[in-house]
């Protein structure tokens, strides 16, 4: 897919499962928690935690019982750790290409402010981004159209693109505003796995397999 770029073009990205796999954040958090609970032998606990998660068990409830720790404390460790996550292949190349053509970049993401901004810091992309909308800071979550209008107000342009992964909620707002919507297809590791239920109602205009399917012209 080609995106014609100039100084009036704004490309907005979702964060989780769009720029990196959210499952990697979970693994990073589990590792941090395991190291806190079992600093001398954290690997077996980490392995157990991830296996429990994959088996649909309540990991924090079981840890709270085993280690006599409050679930809230575990949640704080989860949300406040500094994540070890990596961008999908091709993301930086797309960001560089947008900036070379004087385009602008936005982020619209749902979640806690501290957590989402820690992710962006770990991914080392803050220098590229002209506007960040985090739901906790803004006061509403997708699919609220106001989150997308906030980008239009902050980063004026004539052509807006939104690249995201979750067909349940990601494309309702930008579709209503006439943005060109692009869905990144699940690579098999996405947290949200029920996109097929929403394909008829909330379809984006384009689908891509990965960022190598995008070309900035």
Automatic annotation (TrEMBL):
<dbReference type="InterPro" id="IPR023214">
    <property type="entry name" value="HAD_sf"/>
</dbReference>
<protein>
    <submittedName>
        <fullName>HAD family hydrolase</fullName>
    </submittedName>
</protein>
<dbReference type="GO" id="GO:0044281">
    <property type="term" value="P:small molecule metabolic process"/>
</dbReference>
<keyword id="KW-0479">Metal-binding</keyword>
<dbReference type="InterPro" id="IPR006439">
    <property type="entry name" value="HAD-SF_hydro_IA"/>
</dbReference>
<dbReference type="InterPro" id="IPR041492">
    <property type="entry name" value="HAD_2"/>
</dbReference>
<dbReference type="GO" id="GO:0016791">
    <property type="term" value="F:phosphatase activity"/>
</dbReference>
<dbReference type="GO" id="GO:0046872">
    <property type="term" value="F:metal ion binding"/>
</dbReference>
<dbReference type="Pfam" id="PF13419">
    <property type="entry name" value="HAD_2"/>
</dbReference>
<keyword id="KW-0460">Magnesium</keyword>
<dbReference type="InterPro" id="IPR051400">
    <property type="entry name" value="HAD-like_hydrolase"/>
</dbReference>
<dbReference type="InterPro" id="IPR036412">
    <property type="entry name" value="HAD-like_sf"/>
</dbReference>
<keyword id="KW-0378">Hydrolase</keyword>
